[in-house]
């Protein structure tokens, strides 16, 4: 095991009674990485973090933090961690200052160092106005800031943050993510969140869990590509309309264009998108491997048609997230056993799923990008 | 002061007992390998990997003190504390001065009456009320998660809670003791005789031992539940039962060895010699064992969160 691996989880499982909250979760996080830990509600993010922070023990599997086993060297592990539990449970009767002082004392930080760290942390978390307030008087966002401050006060090499930004306002969110990026260069951060934009702005890498399993782990680009599909949007001019038709010959019929596109190599599926009557617009599903934009352009120009628009759509993180975790989602929206045939009450995706997905493997059920329907 | 050495003793005993228990039931690696670290050198290093990691945590003693301080502050910040203290003062005061003719009936200048009433007040009110929050509330609110993921040993958490609660109980006892102290410091004014102070201090020692046992039991119950109310009633019932079981009538009714056994475990009969100014070493051991037992069970219960 390389010394650079700061968080190491191997085959973590956790059962609550007969319920499997985690099932064979393995991953590594290295120094200098800021990793987003994603998953739908109940996927096991908090459970994993609780194991890594020695709050609960896994039913099986091992986890190491900085090379120290969370089980055998719990004190060493905990002293190198900064942890913010979900919903920042703080002692409400203490003032912010008292709380930070308490956290510092437990970490054996002496007064002068505390003053220095406190100044830094107060600046990052925007707590200067609230230091002497009792925590019970603070709004949720401010409590979360105190939770963050508490996790940062000892300047830990490893940060584990469970939904650290859920209650923050946009300004503080940006400030905090900035800080994370800045300190993330020589530290290790594992943060869970439901906000995928945030992951895209702060993390280079993400781990997605669903129903207690890791379903994706890698650089964001890799994850985006994980769907194995790329979408191309093509518009071809159809009629003269206001501007003159600049193609050779008559404007193409809809069926002609569709046939021609389908004939191209690497095209899996062509679907017409609704447009006005001046153009034909198609969404083309292609393979991940090669870029067929050049082929499309050649074909259209060879036929003498007019190309109005051509672009390649990589999947957004959100698309992939939905695709990877759709099993969870569907389970939640149906009563009784999960049946493929039912007309799901799922407003967003149900129509697409029903036509595309007739396999039992829900985790790999393909989904349409939402753009396709517009 | 006496109490300090006793607290230390009880800590040592607790640790010794903890380790003994471990040695007995240790199979495979258990989380409390941390307990055995405790007896070794203080600047702790994790030897298991050969690489030295400096632990950013204070010594065990100052950690326990930090936690206890926090506990005391939380208590001092809470209105309940003042209500409990005031109520106990009033109740014990009324009992002390007026019940069955009261203090003035007793010819001799004696504090025996005080040691009559305070233990029951402790069992019924003070100890359960000051211990009910300790762990139950942390679990209910979830603060325990933040606390335990700091580099704190479970045993330190328990000891901190114990000492924090005990300090509150001790404060209450001190305030109750202020009655006689104030009175006898002005003995001529009240036309009281000179008080023999040594039985008084022995009695106080007894109260402290009793409180330690009670507090440990209270912390234990608090570690079992998330509800303060439940913790209060469980502690109160346990202590009152342990106390009342030794009342003379029950012991006489049972006679023979059952009676002896009962008076052996009863807080009341164990406390009785102290009230008369005698230090009964068996009673000291009894109270300390009860303390240890309560704390070890609480420790186990706190640990058990991991496996749930
Ligand atoms: N103490 C517990 N007892 C029983 N089941 C539990 C317990 N804690 C968590 N679970 C279950 O374990 C699963 C994972 O929970 P976890 O809190 O890790 O989810 P999460 O990914 O953090 O979700 P969220 O996004 O809602 O925070 C859930 O199904 C939850 O019901
Ligand atoms: Mg969670």
Pick out its properties.
heterodimer, A: 374 residues, alpha/beta, Rossmann fold, Alpha-Beta Plaits, 2 domains, 14 strands, disordered C terminus, B: 308 residues, mainly alpha, 15 helices, disordered N terminus, binds adenosine-5'-triphosphate, binds magnesium ion
Into how many domains do the coordinates of chain B divide?
1
Mean pLDDT of chain A: 83
Small molecules bound in the structure, each named once: adenosine-5'-triphosphate, magnesium ion
Give the name of the CATH architecture of the largest domain in chain A: 3-Layer(aba) Sandwich
Helix content of chain B: over 70%
What topology emerges from the helices and strands here?
The complex is a heterodimer of chains A (374) and B (308).
Chain A: E1 5-16, E2 19-30, E3 34-38, H1 45-52, E4 60-65, E5 68-69, H2 74-79, E6 81-84, H3 96-106, H4 111-125, H5 140-152, E7 158-162, H6 170-183, E8 188-192, H7 196-202, E9 205-210, E10 213-219, H8 220-225, E11 229-237, H9 254-263, E12 267-273, E13 279-287, H10 293-302, E14 307-313, H11 317-333, H12 350-356
Parallel strand pairs in A: 3-8, 3-9, 6-7, 7-8
Antiparallel strand pairs in A: 1-2, 1-4, 4-5, 9-10, 11-13, 11-14, 12-13
Chain B: H1 2-25, H2 33-39, H3 60-76, H4 79-98, H5 112-131, H6 136-141, H7 143-148, H8 154-185, H9 187-190, H10 197-224, H11 228-244, H12 248-254, H13 256-265, H14 267-275, H15 281-303
Helix pairs in contact in B: 1-15, 3-8, 4-5, 4-8, 5-8, 5-10, 5-11, 8-10, 8-15, 10-11, 10-14, 10-15, 12-13
The complex binds adenosine-5'-triphosphate and magnesium ion.
């Amino acid at each position: 095991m390389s010394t650079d691996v700061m968080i190491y989880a191997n085959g973590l499982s956790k059962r609550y009674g007969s319920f499997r909250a985690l099932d064979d979760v393995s991953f590594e996080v290295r120094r200098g990485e800021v990793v987003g830990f994603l998953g739908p509600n109940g996927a096991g993010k908090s459970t994993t973090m609780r194991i890594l922070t020695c709050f609960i023990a896994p039913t099986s599997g091992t986890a190491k933090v900085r090379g120290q086993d969370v089980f055998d060297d719990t004190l060493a592990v905990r002293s190198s961690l900064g942890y913010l539990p979900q919903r920042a449970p703080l002692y409400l009767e203490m003032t912010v200052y008292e709380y930070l002082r308490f956290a510092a004392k437990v970490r054996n930080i002496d007064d002068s160092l505390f003053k220095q760290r406190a100044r830094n942390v107060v600046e990052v978390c925007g707590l200067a106005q609230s230091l002497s307030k009792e925590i019970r008087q603070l709004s949720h966002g401010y409590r979360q800031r105190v939770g963050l401050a508490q996790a940062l006060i000892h300047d830990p090499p490893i940060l584990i943050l469970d939904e650290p930004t859920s209650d923050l306002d946009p300004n503080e969110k940006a400030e905090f993510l900035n800080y994370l990026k800045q300190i993330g260069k020589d530290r290790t951060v594992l943060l869970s969140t439901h906000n995928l934009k945030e992951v895209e702005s702060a993390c280079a890498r993400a781990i997605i869990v669903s129903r207690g399993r890791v379903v994706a782990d890698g650089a964001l680009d890799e994850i985006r590509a994980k769907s194995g599909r790329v979408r191309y949007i093509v518009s071809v001019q159809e009629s003269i309309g206001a501007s003159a038709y600049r193609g050779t010959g008559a404007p193409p019929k809809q069926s002609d264009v569709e046939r021609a596109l389908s004939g191209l190599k690497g095209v899996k599926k062509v679907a017409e998108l609704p447009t006005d009557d001046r153009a034909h617009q198609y969404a083309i599903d292609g393979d991940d491997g090669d870029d067929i934009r050049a082929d499309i352009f050649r074909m259209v120009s060879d036929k003498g048609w007019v190309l109005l628009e051509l672009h390649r759509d990589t999947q957004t993180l959100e698309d992939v997230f939905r695709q990877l975790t759709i099993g969870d989602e569907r389970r939640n929206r149906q009563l009784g056993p999960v049946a493929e045939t039912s007309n799901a009450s799922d407003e967003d995706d149900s129509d697409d799923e029903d036509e595309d997905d007739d396999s039992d493997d829900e985790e790999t059920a393909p989904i349409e990008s939402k753009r396709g329907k517009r | 002061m006496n109490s300090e050495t006793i607290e230390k003793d009880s800590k040592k005993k607790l640790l010794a007992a903890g380790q003994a228990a471990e040695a007995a039931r240790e199979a495979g690696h258990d989380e409390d390998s941390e307990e055995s670290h405790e007896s070794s050198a203080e600047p702790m290093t994790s030897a298991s990997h050969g690489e030295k990691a400096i632990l950013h945590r204070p010594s065990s003693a100052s950690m326990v003190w930090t936690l206890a301080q926090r506990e005391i502050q939380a208590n001092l910040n809470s209105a309940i504390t003042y209500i409990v203290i005031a109520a106990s003062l009033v109740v014990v005061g009324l009992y002390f001065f007026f019940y069955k003719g009261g203090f003035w009936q007793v010819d001799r200048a004696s504090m025996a009456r005080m040691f009559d009433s305070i233990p029951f007040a402790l069992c019924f009110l003070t100890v359960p009320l000051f211990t009910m929050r300790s762990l139950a509330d942390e679990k209910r609110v979830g603060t325990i998660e933040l606390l335990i993921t700091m580099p704190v040993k479970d045993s330190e958490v328990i000891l901190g809670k114990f000492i924090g609660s005990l300090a509150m109980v001790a404060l209450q006892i001190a305030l109750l003791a202020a009655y006689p102290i104030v009175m006898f410091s002005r003995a001529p004014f009240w036309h009281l005789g000179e008080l023999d102070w040594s039985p008084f201090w022995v009695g106080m020692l007894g109260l402290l031992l009793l409180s330690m046992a009670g507090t440990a039991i209270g912390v234990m119950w608090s570690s079992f539940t998330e509800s303060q109310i439940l913790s209060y009633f469980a502690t109160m019932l346990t202590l009152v039962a342990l106390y009342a079981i030794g009342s003379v009538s029950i012991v006489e009714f049972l006679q023979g060895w059952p009676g002896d056994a009962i008076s052996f475990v009863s807080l009341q009969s164990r406390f009785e010699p102290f009230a008369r100014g005698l230090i009964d070493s068996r009673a000291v051991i009894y109270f300390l064992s009860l303390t240890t037992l309560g704390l070890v069970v609480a420790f186990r219960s706190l640990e058990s969160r991991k496996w749930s």
